[in-house]
Structure formats: structure tokens, C-alpha cells
Amino acid sequence: MLIPDNLKTGVDKTNDWYTPKINKTYYEMAEYYDTAVLPARVKAPKDKPGVEGSVNVVTNWITAAIRNEKFFALEELNREIQIQLEKLNHKPFQKKDGSRHSVYLADEKPFLTPLPPAPYELSQWKKATVQFNYHIKCEASHLI
User: Fold this and answer.
1) What are the CA-CA distances from residue 55 to residues 51, 58, 61, 62 (Å)?
2) Fewest 10 Å CB contacts: which of 3, 5, 10, 13?
3) E strands along 1-83, which residues?
4) Residues 6 or more apart from 74 whose CB is under 8 A from it?
5) Cα–chain-centroid distance for residue 40?
6) What angle is formed at CA 58 by the lines to CA 33 and CA 105, rounded to 5 degrees?
7) How many CB atoms lie within 10 A of CB 99?
8) 22 φ/ψ angles, rounded to the nearest 5 degrees
9) What mean pLDDT value characterizes the chain?
10) What is the pLDDT, as a whole number, of residue 102?
11) Comparing C-alpha atoms, which of 85, 111, 89 is closest to residue 98?
């Protein structure tokens, strides 16, 4: 399930703040990846996932761990970030049992499905008028 926060490009304008409508392209992408999109309501913090706080924790943890290191290649930096991320994911929680990794294995991994073999291809939607001779012009092409 995807819960975008104020995703203006993925939500069509409607008169109802409480039931936003996903635009056609975003909907097709969600269908292709077999997921649901439930946009967060504007100014409704309870609708927003807890991922925002988690992103801050991960960013601060990794930044603090590598703050005194020097990297001369992007690959080196990425390798060290991966190492620190693994450490953080396996670090035990302070107030409950387990770690981020154990919660992932127990609660999330069983519901994951493989990605489709090909990535989603973006569609373009245009309105066209059928001419009296039944031809449609799309960009520089004539379609019958």
C-alpha cells in the first residue's frame, strides 16, 4: 500500500478534501505493481505513515557513524552506508523485543510479491476528435 503525502502530481483536483482522486497514470502504475494508493488527507497527520520519523532516524544514525570518514569514490561511500544500514537494521529495539530486521521478516516479508519482469512504462493520454473521414491525428501520425 502506498500512502503519498500531498502528492499533487498523483492526485486530481476535486472539491472534496476527504476523498482525493488518484490521477489515471498513477492509478495505472499502482495496478501494474498490484498495490493500492491511499493519499493522506491535507493537514491530517494521523493519515501519514510513521516512515517520516524513521527516515530521520536512519539519516542521523548513518551520518553520525561516518561523519569523520573520508571517501574518495561514490562506491566507497555507498558500501559504508550499506554496512551502517545493516548494523542499524539488526540493532535491538530499546523498548520492545526484536529489531527492524526481525520485524521485517515477521510482519512484512510474507506479504511481499515479486516485481513484474519489466518496469512500468508511462502512458500518455490525449483527447482526440474523430474526423468526418474517421481519421485521428496523433502528433505527426494519422491513425485510422
Assistant:
1) 6, 5, 10, 11
2) 13
3) 11-12, 21-22
4) none
5) 13
6) 50
7) 15
8) -70, 135
9) 84
10) 96
11) 89
